[in-house]
Design a protein that fits this description.
The structure is a single chain. This protein is mostly beta strands. The protein has 2 helices and 10 strands, in the order H-E-E-E-E-E-E-E-E-H-E-E. The chain has a single domain, classed as Porin, CATH 2.40.160. It is 14% helix and 61% strand. The longest helix has 22 residues.
């Protein structure tokens, strides 16, 4: 990603933060907690999706904005049983709702921190460990479906590791949001993966 493109992306996120801060001061807030399930395709070149589970915390800051923090976890062994792989993705997101109703579509955007720890095993004992960390933007579309006054089911689709500018290892123009093709082309949006998420949130 070029320095200019990175500055442009940072400016966009900064503007969203200012919008969220002003919205938070203007309306009543409610907090929601709940479990979520995700199907993650980490590589655009494969159709294989990995299932991970976790939880979500949502803060409704105004009728049209929600702040979300999610944490997922997955642990598994490789095919030869010589490595234990643990994934700890965390995402912070801003949800924008055009209108609140029983069925409420939303636009989601934010940043994620993705950690992976690999333990080398010998006779079921850990003999070495390595940890890698990545950071990336995400964006997508989703829907909240209310189930009573204090709970909702959500489902959304997110593009992950979105870039600004056409990097060689990303898919150029790969975020086809209807009506925003001009913005996509102008910013040179690209991505490296995607994910479905679904869950239930109970509000207090």
């Amino acid at each position: 990603m070029s320095h200019r493109a990175r500055r442009r992306g940072t400016a966009i996120l900064g503007s969203l933060c200012l919008l969220l801060a002003s919205a938070a001061g203007a309306g009543a807030q409610s907090v929601g907690l709940g479990p979520r399930l995700s199907f993650v395709r980490a590589d655009i070149h494969t159709e294989h999706a990995t299932r991970v589970s976790g939880g979500v915390l949502r803060l409704r800051t105004s009728p049209k904005t929600t702040l979300e923090v999610s944490f997922d976890y997955r642990s598994h062994l490789n095919e030869t049983l010589t490595e234990r792989i643990k994934d700890y993705p965390i995402q912070g997101s801003l949800l924008l709702h055009p209108a609140r109703a029983v069925v409420s579509p939303y636009l989601v955007m934010g940043i994620g921190w993705y950690s992976q720890k690999i333990d080398a095993l010998q006779d079921d004992q850990v003999i070495a460990s390595t940890t890698t960390r990545k950071t990336g933007y995400h964006a997508g579309l989703g829907t909240d479906i209310s189930i009573g006054r204090h709970a909702a089911i959500h489902v959304d689709y997110r593009y992950t590791f979105i870039g600004f500018g056409h990097d060689a290892d990303t898919a150029p123009a790969a975020v086809p949001i209807p009506g925003l093709r001009w913005l996509q082309d102008r910013l040179g949006l690209s991505h490296k993966g995607s994910m479905w998420t679904t869950g239930v949130t109970v509000y207090f």
